[in-house]
Design brief:
single chain; 12 helices; two-stranded antiparallel sheet; elongated; 291 residues
Amino acid sequence: MNEASRGVWGWAAAFALLVSMVFSWRLLPLRALPESGRQVREVTGLFASVSRKPDFAFGFRNVLSDVAWLEAVQVAGNLKMAPEDYDRLYELLNVEANFDPKFDIPYLLGGLVLGESPDHAQKALKVFERGKGQYPADWRFPFYTGFTHYFSLGDAVAGGRAMAEAARLPGSPVYLPGLASRMLSEAREPDVALALLAPIVRQESDPSRRAVLERRIREVTVERDIQTLEKALKSYRKKTGAVPRELSDLVRAGILPDIPEEPNGGRYFVDPGGKVRSDRMAQRLRVFQQK
């Protein structure tokens, strides 16, 4: 074997070692070990560095792209994502896109999940924008950009403009022009938001993205119900001079015909401070709360 061949095989061996390290990080339960967080960060940093120079991946780009996407799916699958989970998801989506920029699913699904956190909505927009750069004629990227502006950031103008852009692209749903005009002209109220969400969910055929949208419908429904119950509480206080101990008191007082069902299978209640809450959603949707 000549010197050049040994050099090539040396690089290949080194890269195979990197791949094995990445797979070990993905498959072994590092989080259960002491200092596992530091180990994961170190391997992730190495992985990210390689992704920024994908030509050094030789023939392993698809393999490394799949590893990054598998880890991103695992992070996004957490039922209760912490801020650091959203940060990690964003990093993994960038790594995946560096290795395989034409893989469209991570842009769409990853951006939607990031947009569930108002604090990470700007990162979601960056993911959609990067996907749009690869697929400029695909209406889904400006569509979900508009969705994030409206439902995560509360920016009806930016949301409507992005929806209007999506409506001009081939293959876009026929309801998009009307949706864009409603976003541009109507207030950000939960009832309006639910009316806007209905055709979006009906149109979405991908099960994963549909699940995210259906979860958003439940979140907006909770916010609508809590606002309704808060108004009823004010009427009860004005009528009786007291705070009801139970929400059923609102029905007995003739203020409400019934108490709405919590869409996540939980219940609404009045806390000791007189606030209405859901026992299934710890945080309310800030973007739809009354100012």
